[in-house]
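Researcher: I've got a protein sequence and the SMILES for magnesium ion. Could you write out the 3D structure of the bound complex as structure tokens? I'd like something to compare against our soaking experiments later this week.
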Amino acid sequence: MIELRSLCRTYRMGSEDVHALANVTLSIKKGEHIAVVGPSGSGKSTLLNILGCLDRPTSGSYRFSGQEVAELGEVELSGLRQRWIGFVFQFFHLLPRLDAVGNVEVPMLFAGVEREERRRRARWALEAVGLEHRLRHKPEELSGGERQRVAIARSVVMGPRLLLADEPTGNLDRHSAEEIMDLIERMNAEGLTLIVVTHDPAIAQRAGRIVRLEDGRVVEGGPDIPP
Amino acid sequence: MIELRSLCRTYRMGSEDVHALANVTLSIKKGEHIAVVGPSGSGKSTLLNILGCLDRPTSGSYRFSGQEVAELGEVELSGLRQRWIGFVFQFFHLLPRLDAVGNVEVPMLFAGVEREERRRRARWALEAVGLEHRLRHKPEELSGGERQRVAIARSVVMGPRLLLADEPTGNLDRHSAEEIMDLIERMNAEGLTLIVVTHDPAIAQRAGRIVRLEDGRVVEGGPDIPP
Ligand SMILES: Nc1ncnc2c1ncn2[C@@H]1O[C@H](COP(=O)(O)OP(=O)(O)OP(=O)(O)O)[C@@H](O)[C@H]1O
Ligand SMILES: Nc1ncnc2c1ncn2[C@@H]1O[C@H](COP(=O)(O)OP(=O)(O)OP(=O)(O)O)[C@@H](O)[C@H]1O
Ligand SMILES: [Mg+2]
Ligand SMILES: [Mg+2]
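Model: Sure. Here is the predicted complex with magnesium ion in place.
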């Protein structure tokens, strides 16, 4: 499903260059459950943003289902994102003026799903993450963990093929965290490819494979690591 | 240092009332290290916002160093906050257009600290949290964990008496989390009163006392719990 070859992402900061990702080579099969771990600042979110077609690599190759992503235009990229990829951002990016149901409806709004159908699926997704009692709350009327669960519900409501989750349980207690992981692992068992960035060892151990990043390099879990 | 008596905080949502805190009675001595734990949505951040004089209780009493906070006006409240209380918000609230040094200088700017002195103390605080290599980065040029560490540096730069930290290690790897806790525990050993909200059992166990909230009520760690 995913092939990365010598992928780099460099940020230019005045005269200094920050190498957030340096020669990342990785392949991920359809239906895998991968955990991405590594110190703060090691490139995990940068990697996820590129996999989610939200950012472009500085150099190297990224193939999604055999297609070279660099050759796609903006319209094809957003079509690919909307149809196949679910994303749980590290800081949620909820829309402040919409309530929980409204925020979960957003991806379906873009995809032209009927109003009644949107409502029904949004309620189902929020119930699945334990928020049936907070449907009418706007983001600032929700706790940190409740906002995170709205973001998770929004990421799965279109039935994606690939789910990219950046610390999906960082603001949740142990019990809520396990419930969320049970939900997304059920989807993984039905074929969803799952890539989860986490600092929590208990969450990382649930994955089939652990990829470790340090200073933008894959030091564990990639193909045979060059010396 | 802190006395809460039958403290309530209720949010009115249309016809429904949300009881974020219900009859919380708690006393905290100067120099204590307290962990506040509990499920997502149980009232932890609400409690911290009230302790930090950022929100007012709906009813009940809150005394800080013997003074009833409800009787203070806005000017006295902001003086108390600025002088004695450091706060690490659950979602940081960094100013987007300032770099790391600029964000850490903000509390000193309000307190009228000289420019050179501000710079020096801001650099010291950022080095103490391991960010000497990111001084000129703005929040969107920092990773999640790096932003969290800027927020921690800002919270301690005025040498507060009370530090309220809402999930201070939620976006940090194990190693960075321990470094941060070592730093704030050194300050606790010198007299800083420390109240840390966390979902991480390893962080909670470092405290002298654990206060557990459920549905807005103290169910563990308070004074003798009524039946
Ligand atoms: N402005 C508001 N209006 C209505 N309800 C609110 C508001 N702010 C918070 N709440 C509700 O109050 C309850 C307590 O919220 P609080 O943020 O204190 O929880 P928390 O313990 O910090 O949770 P978490 O671990 O998820 O951060 C939540 O159920 C939340 O939905
Ligand atoms: N726009 C930017 N400009 C310059 N440097 C950046 C920018 N965005 C990120 N960085 C740097 O790139 C590095 C990688 O960031 P990234 O967000 O991928 O880290 P991360 O592994 O997700 O860390 P965390 O666990 O703290 O969230 C960081 O050191 C960060 O300072
Ligand atoms: Mg990150
Ligand atoms: Mg909270």
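Model: The two ends of chain A are 27 Å apart (CA to CA). The first strand of chain A starts at residue 2 and ends at 13.
Researcher: Great, I'll pass this along to the crystallography team.
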